[in-house]
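User: Please predict the structure of the protein below. I'd like the answer in structure-token form so I can feed it into my own downstream comparison script.

Assistant: Understood. Taking the following sequence of 117 residues as input:
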Amino acid sequence: MHTGDKQLLIDLFPAIQKYLQLWEKDSDGLVRVREGGWLWGDWGDHKDMLLIHNLWYYLAIKGNQLIANELRYDEQAKEYRLEMEKFKTKFNERFWNGQSYRDPKYTGETDERVHMR
């Protein structure tokens, strides 16, 4: 999007769509933590993993929506835009407690990563 090399975006777009389908979602459309051999939680302490995974997923769909816009894949761009709107609403309903973002089941200190600008 910044280099003018649209062929790279054309080549990557289907793979990114396939990757996004790996994420299991709950009934609200938010993603579940993907367990595996290594549960990556970024740097630092106080890892609110469900929150982190949902934020990373949102960034991924936002990136794919930007690619779809750039490639003029209007239908896919619209689908991702609608998913982002729904996701944002459900994310705020579930994780915003009036003072901070946190998984209601998370008992540790508030994860500072999700509040950085």
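That's the full token string. Residues 54-117 form one domain.
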